[in-house]
């Protein structure tokens, strides 16, 4: 008989039994469910709702079930519906009628809200550790390539010369913000909903704060309706996960482009590439492409749960059973992606000469030529127009700005002198941009130092001075 079956005259239809059950996926919450039940049982004994002996019996029985599940010695039943009722059924079979007292003063509604918060808290911590490892790898690559010159792009057209270090440090900023978002999510979910009951609390004198403290929460939720029906924390996690996946997708897209025969900026390690079943010469960046593709999967998880929640009246509704698969899928996806992206970046080969050659083409020093004129008193808009005409002329001649003779420059304007060639040299164009956030090697080196400081602050819990994180 169902634990809730007293009011029913017929058994559940077999098709509904399978449709209704969530044990296939929510068994993942077994540890959180049992730890929450242990804390609940201990509290019931301490406030006198059950005896201390009964509480100890419940705690010992739950501990044994946890050990057996971890050892692979427990088989869950579809008929018991979910992880909560499976654990309670096994407990009652093992310790007898006292097992039926475990559910005193609580509902599966507040129980599952508790379990999901405990689960996400742990997985957020693990995800942040993986993001930190990725950041450390990017910082190491940046330190090695402070003077690896490359073209920067806008609209995928060559724009201005930068360094590989400067380029990858842009991603460091993105991933630091991702850690900040995950920390914010963790902070907001860290309130215990246990004690909210089905939706109106309970008449038992529960010590909610005691349970919350034992489970590592900062406090308790303050409204029982919200306690059982809130999934903002899950949505916030999925939103943070979606942004994180977008950043992973962007960097993977660049790796795909850079490893192409047209760019040849990098070569992917054989361990993170695949071949073709028909074309023997192929070396495909499939890992980067797959990460790019999996981004849509996490977006789908977010949209799915937003759609589930958008029309639900208070308080709990069975629709909310759909929350867990979306959260579980997003957790699995982002963690697997982070685990492969970090070594993929660490093992790639950078072709410095090809990057430097690319930085010299496409008139990436045109802005510096206009700046040269502006520094000599020419209004920037006039300088911009004249340089545009020079670029057009050089383009027709098939030469770069640095290859145009001084006499030809002076025929356009008397302000040009021999110092212009130094001003438009690729290395000078980069080194001269020492403004905060710029690509100068010295500036980027300082950015690396500051980023490591921010990372230490995020890890230790101190708020960075920069509100960006």
Key structural traits:
two-stranded antiparallel sheet, mainly alpha, two-stranded parallel sheet, 61% helix, 469 residues, elongated, 19 helices, 6 strands, Fumarase C, Chain A, domain 2, Fumarase C, Chain B, domain 1
Describe the structure.
- The chain has 469 residues and is mainly alpha-helical.
- Among the domains are: 12-104, Fumarase/aspartase (N-terminal domain) (Fumarase C, Chain B, domain 1, Orthogonal Bundle); 109-120 and 137-142 and 164-206 and 216-352, Fumarase C, Chain A, domain 2 (Up-down Bundle), CATH 1.20.200.10.
- It has helices at residues 14-20, 23-26, 30-46, 52-70, 83-95, 108-144, 164-189, 208-214, 224-229, 232-258, 286-309, 323-347, 352-360, 366-375, 380-397, 406-412, 419-423, 426-431, 441-460, and strands at 149-154, 157-163, 191-192, 219-220, 266-267, 349-350.
- It has a two-stranded antiparallel sheet. A two-stranded parallel sheet has the order 3-4.
- It is elongated.
- The relative contact order is 0.10.
- The model has no long low-confidence stretch (mean pLDDT 95).
In short:
The protein has helices at residues 14-20, 23-26, 30-46, 52-70, 83-95, 108-144, 164-189, 208-214, 224-229, 232-258, 286-309, 323-347, 352-360, 366-375, 380-397, 406-412, 419-423, 426-431, 441-460; strands at 149-154, 157-163, 191-192, 219-220, 266-267, 349-350.
